[in-house]
Write a structure and sequence with these properties.
- This protein has seven helices and two strands, in the order H-H-H-E-E-H-H-H-H.
- It is mostly helical and 152 residues long.
- A two-stranded antiparallel ribbon has the order 1-2.
- The longest helix has 18 residues.
- It has one domain: Winged helix-like DNA-binding domain superfamily/Winged helix DNA-binding domain (Arc Repressor Mutant, subunit A), CATH 1.10.10.10.
- The model has no long low-confidence stretch (mean pLDDT 92).
């Protein structure tokens, strides 16, 4: 699985908004500066997140962006899907839409298992948990495995 720059930036921007609190608007420039994200690129991402119902925007001197709902109700997967589409695809196709034959037949359940695991982690971890650095024990355990940090 590859996390695009767009998805990474979107999650980081959402985390800045989560850290600011539910009722606080943050200017795009402040998010861009805090996270080292190109401002124009961020504006497009925030627009997608607004259209996707994850952020709300307000114009004016006290304007900016804020989360459209509480951070504990927004999963990391929600953010990624809004800016990049499906979490896991093979050649741009969702695994359930694939079919294989012969010795490759067992690839389909393998891709489905990969999809299920990605969805389990990204779909269950919320912006609030990441912003508070309180990841679920299962995620912490996976990340603490030394083999997780190395390429074979």
């Amino acid at each position: 699985m590859r996390i695009s720059a767009r998805a990474d930036y979107a999650v980081r921007a959402a985390l800045e908004l989560a850290a600011a609190g539910d009722d606080t608007s943050v200017k795009a420039e402040a998010i861009a500066t805090a996270q080292g994200i190109p401002h124009k690129f961020l504006e497009g991402i925030l627009g997608d997140m607004r259209r996707g119902g994850l952020v709300a925007s307000q114009r004016g001197g006290k304007g900016g962006y804020r989360l459209a709902r509480p951070a504990d109700s927004i999963a990391i997967a929600d953010v990624i899907r809004v800016v990049d589409g499906p979490l896991v695809s093979v050649r741009g196709v969702r695994p359930p839409e694939l079919s294989y034959s012969g010795p490759a037949e067992a690839l389909l359940p393998l891709w489905i298992a990969v999809r299920a695991n990605v969805r389990k982690i990204l779909g269950e971890v919320t912006l609030a948990e990441v912003a508070a650095a309180k990841l679920p024990d299962e995620v912490v355990g996976l990340a603490e495995d030394p083999d997780a940090w190395t390429n074979p």
